[in-house]
Design goal:
This protein is mostly helical. The chain is about 65% helix and about 0% strand. Helix 3 packs across helix 10 and helix 6 packs antiparallel against helix 10. InterPro entries: Haem_Oase (IPR002051), Haem_Oase-like (IPR016053), Haem_Oase-like_multi-hlx (IPR016084).
């Protein structure tokens, strides 16, 4: 007969595995808080940004999204990645439109953005499964916190709607339902992988890259301490 310790260990082995989303949320919980409280993102959330800071943010996010979207499309026939390739989420055309409206020419591309782009290219190599983490971090963030930032920017910087296309998703009729459906396909993608651990760690990497870029943008824009 099994003793109590062995019974507990056996029971633990039989429980359902932690879902990909649960694992990513848990792994990035503290990083998520840090991302909201530091750098240019924190300044924008507090209503202390400037048009130049916003334009600089967009300038440096553009190659990040261009690379992410290109890598996702390249893997669109993948069993794991095919369901998360959703053109209605693509942000690079909207970012270009916002930059044109803001007449943001001559803004620098920071080294931190180049590093971020390199990390996404690396995530897209081989199977490309780590791209799930970048899609999770960027797109669900845009659909959630991004909607709050849009309202703050419109008020604090008096930006017209045509300068805030980045946060608009005209092809998505119901953002809440879309987010739920997108989470579902992320879960299906996670279930199709033998070991989602690398994706979970890539989610932490994605948040760290965002934080580093945000801090660099804050300094480049001359905001904060």
């Amino acid at each position: 007969m099994l003793d109590r310790v062995e019974q507990i260990e056996m029971a633990g082995c039989s429980t359902r595995p932690v879902s990909l989303l649960e694992a990513m949320r848990e792994r990035t919980k503290a990083l998520h808080v840090t991302a909201e409280r530091t750098g240019v993102v924190a300044e924008l959330l507090r209503g202390r940004g400037t048009r130049q800071a916003y334009a600089l943010l967009l300038r440096n996010l553009l190659p990040v999204y261009e690379t992410l979207e290109a890598e996702l499309v390249r893997h669109q026939s993948s069993l794991v990645l095919s369901r998360i390739v959703r053109p209605e989420l693509h942000r690079s055309p909207a970012i270009k439109a916002d930059l044109a409206t803001l007449d943001a020419t001559g803004l620098p591309l920071l080294p931190e953005a180049i590093t971020y782009v390199g990390a996404i290219k690396k995530a897209g190599s081989g199977s490309g499964h780590p791209l799930l983490a970048h899609a999770y971090t960027r797109y669900l963030g845009d659909l959630s916190g991004g909607q709050i930032i849009k309202k703050i920017l419109a008020r604090s910087l008096a930006l017209p709607p045509e300068a805030l296309s980045f946060y608009e998703f005209p092809e998505i009729a119901d953002i809440r339902r879309f987010k739920d459906a997108y989470r579902d396909v992320l879960e299906l993608a996670g279930a199709a992988m033998a070991d989602p651990g690398a994706v979970v760690e890539e989610a932490a990497t994605a948040f760290k890259l965002n934080i580093t870029l945000s801090e660099a943008l804050q300094a480049a824009a001359g905001l904060g301490a």
